[in-house]
Structures are given as structure tokens and as C-alpha cells.
Amino acid sequence: MNELSLFNSLFDDGDYGLFPAIAKNCSFGVPQVDVKETKDAYTLEMDLPGRTEKDVDVDLKDNVLTIASHTEETKEKKSEEKKEDVQWLIHERRFNSFCRRFSLPKDVDSEAVSANFKNGVLSVNIPRKALSAPKKISISVA
User: Fold this and answer.
1) Which residue ranges in the chain fall short of pLDDT 50?
2) What is the DSSP string of 31-82?
3) Most buried of the four, 59, 114, 128, 137, by CB within 10 Å?
4) What is the distance between the alpha carbons of residues 102 and 61, in angstroms, rounded to a whole number?
5) How many other C-beta atoms can be found within 10 angstroms of the C-beta atom of residue 16?
6) Quick one: pLDDT at residue 38?
7) Whose CA is closest to 27, among 3, 47, 11?
């Protein structure tokens, strides 16, 4: 199978059913991804507006690609607001986090995976390697 499969796709629709413990650890603003395949590589693109490359972690372990981010309101911003005598009526944007996991196919060259962040879009290039062809085993007579 030469497709990236979503490891956490069971939870993407927000219906956590029998998994309420997972629901409280998941963000409802999980960024969507586009994945394309060529003969040389897979490319994953994720829109992350308002974030920088410092806000995003990309890890690869045991053929599972993990993209995660956690942002919080800084203490400096909070102290500035207190100086101005600001009274919040609604304040819902204090923090945001997400974690997406992708099981990669066997033909991925994990040593050559690279990521680029430009204009709020994370692009992960996942090169492919040639899989070894099936080997014919000769049977000797004893």
C-alpha cells in the first residue's frame, strides 16, 4: 500500500463516542492536510495560520510521522492587558494545541524526510526509496 494513512482519523470528525478520555486531550481545531504522491516522494501540506516554525514539532519514529503544536498566551501580554485596565467579556483564544499522526508506508526513506515552513503552511517532503524485489530462493537437494 503506497498511501499515507491517518493514524488518528477515527477522531477527526469530533464524534468521540466511546472515547471521552481522548476527547478532552484533543483539540477541535485540528488542521487538515493535503497529501500528494509522486513516483519519487510523498508531500504533506498543512495550513497553520498564526503559527511559526518554532510553534510546530515534526517527529518521525517507527515509521509514524507526528506533527504537533501547542501555543499559549504569553505572560507579557497578560501583564500589558492589566496595565491598560482591560476587562475581557469573552476570552477563548488563550491556547491551542493539536497532534496529528500518520503511519508511513514501507517505501519511505526516513533518513531524508525534510520539512519547510513558509507563509503559514507546513510542507513535509517524504522521499521514497526503492523496495527490494522479491528474492527467489533456490531449493537444494540433500
Assistant:
1) 1-2, 6-27, 76
2) PPEEEEE-SSEEEEEEE-TT--GGGEEEEEETTEEEEEEEEE--HHHHHHHH
3) 128
4) 11
5) 14
6) 94
7) 11
C-alpha angle with apex 64: 102 to 18, nearest 5 degrees?
A: 60
Grouping H, G, I as helix, E, B as strand and the rest as coil, residue 21 is: helix
Q: What is the pLDDT of residue 73?
A: 66
| Neighbour count for residue 101 (Cβ, 10 Å) | 15
Residue 1, pLDDT score: 41
Q: What is the pLDDT of residue 96?
A: 79
**With 0-12 CB in 10 A as exposed, 13-18 as middle and 19+ as buried, what is 97?**
middle
**Angle at Cα 108 formed by Cα 106 and Cα 113, nearest 5°?**
150
Any idea what DSSP says for residue 132? P
CA distance 86 to 65: 42
Question: How many whole angstroms separate alpha carbon 126 and alpha carbon 45?
Answer: 11
**Which residue reads 470528525 in cell numbers?**
13
Would you say 128 and 41 are in contact if contact means Cβ atoms under 8 Å apart? yes
